[in-house]
Amino acid sequence: MRILALLLAFPLAVALAQRPAAALRVAIPAPAACVAGDPTGILIHFLDIGQGDAALIRAPDGRHLMIDAGPDRGTALRWLRTLGVDSLALIIGSHNHLDHIGGFPAILQAIPVRNAMENGMVTTTRIYRDFIYALERRGTTLLEATPRTLRIGGLELEVLPPWRQAKEQNDASIGVVVRHGAFRALFTGDAELEALAHWTGAKVIPRVQVVKVGHHGSRNATTSALVRATQPALAVISVGAGNTYKHPHPEALARWQAPDRSILRTDQAGTIAVRGCADGSFHLSTQRGSAP
After folding, report:
1. 225: buried, middle or exposed (CB in 10 Å: 19+, 13-18, 0-12)?
2. How many Cβ atoms are within 10 Å of 105's Cβ, its own excluded?
């Protein structure tokens, strides 16, 4: 594996900490079903993961994939076990910062993961080394983050590749448009102003129903052009309560605010579950205090 070869100069990280699965304190209510002929739709859980990002997606055929996995080694895995997930068809690390890939090594150690994607910007951090070594040990196929459409069990993932001129991890984030029929959801990782300008200038970001707001609501990860392009009905912010970064920033919140738009935050709403339907509609539920 190309990336693994670049890391061989570094010592193997300590063994991954293992923590037992814990039951949810409160069950997450399921969003309403879609119309007849598409009863399951796609189900996206924006996980209550603290100061980080983690989204679990269930395709219409029951397969699961994950975009980011939060900041620590145990919480995301416990979420998967609690939600009955015993394998993943795909994991995507939007970029190689701890608060996005921190949970992947433990997941890779515990359950089969068929395919993975990361942004290709090598870093010497311990968590990145753990992530790459875990991919190698599991035998997971590593996909390049090139312009492509991946089809998994009735949904499509359009990959928005990292901005080639990025000099740091945030602006090298992978973007993903998740589609099921007329329903669309957008994930931008922690992409900041220049990367967002590249995507919006290239007109690769469509109108969507749901946006996962970039960089936990940082002021430099939302632009007016992005809001105009997406026009979502729901903006989701994955953020930890009382975080030292003071996310989300009032300026970012103001840009997303609109009379016909809801803004939900994991620090206030807990886990946010969205069922996207092929006709473009969606249903949601939230549950505070449900972190495992």
Report:
1. middle
2. 27
> Please, are residues 33 and 285 in contact by the beta-carbon 8 Å criterion?
no
Note whether residue 259 is domain-resident: yes
> Which residue do the tokens 């996909």 mark?
143
- Distance, in Å, from the CA atom of 118 to the CA atom of 280, rounded to the nearest integer, reads 29
Task: Give helix then strand counts, H and E, for the chain.
Answer: 9, 15
Residue with tokens 């002021």: 219
Strand partners, 170: none
Query: Can you tell me which residue has the tokens 């990361």?
Result: 118
25 pLDDT exceeds 80? Answer: no
pLDDT at position 5 is: 45
CB atoms within 10 A of CB 289: 10
State the CATH number of the domain containing residue 226. Answer: 3.60.15.10
Task: Tell me how far apart the alpha carbons of residues 50 and 110 are, in angstroms, rounded to a whole number.
Answer: 21
Reported as a single tens digit per residue, the pLDDT across 205-227 is 999 999 999 999 999 999 999 99
Domain-embedded: residue 21: no
Task: Give me the phi and psi of 252, to 5 degrees please.
Answer: -65, -45
Residue 56 Cα to chain centre, angstroms = 7
Strands across the sheet containing 210-212: 148-152, 155-160, 175-180, 183-187, 210-212, 234-237, 262-265
The answer to whether residue 89 sits within a structural domain is yes
Count: domains in the chain: 1
Is 3 among the domain residues? no
Instruction: Say what the pLDDT of residue 21 is.
Output: 36
Distance from C-alpha of 264 to C-alpha of 135, rounded to nearest angstrom: 33
Mean of pLDDT over the chain? 91
Using DSSP bridges, classify how beta strands 175-180 and 183-187 pair: parallel, antiparallel or unpaired. Answer: antiparallel
pLDDT digit string, tens, across residues 137-166 = 999 999 999 999 999 999 999 999 999 999
- For residue range 68-86, list pLDDT tens digits in order: 999 998 999 999 999 999 9
